[in-house]
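Reply to dn_fold:

You asked what the input looked like. This is it:
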Amino acid sequence: MHDAFAVIRWSAAGIDTSVISVLWSEAVIAEVFVFFLIGPALLDRFGARAATALAAAAGIVRWSIEGVTTSVLLLSILQPLHGLTQAIYAFGSGLTTAALTLVSGALYAGYGGVSFLLMAALCGVALPVTWLGLADERNNS
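and this is what came back:
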């Protein structure tokens, strides 16, 4: 949803392309920061279960707010969560991404920004699944 429709939504809301570029860059910088600095430390300290649960919780916050606002201020605060929510996507496959993009197109066409709430719902499903379904490798050694 985000990769395919955020720029369309933000442009339709009248956000200038230079501001959209800054928002997008902020998300990418956060992703790199998490992957290289924060992510390994989170995994070492808390394990895969807690780190993935944190990513799902961050996704719930991010997508719930992004689904109902195009405020540049709020979007700029939410963009760093991209680094955490991107961890969820590592568990998906290309087929899942393609299927969700098709569904996202239909949802966005019919419901506009409210369709971003689906992303919050998916993260809500991921939160208990990851917490209950992933073995904590620290306890298995």
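The chain has one domain: 2-133.
Hope that clears it up.
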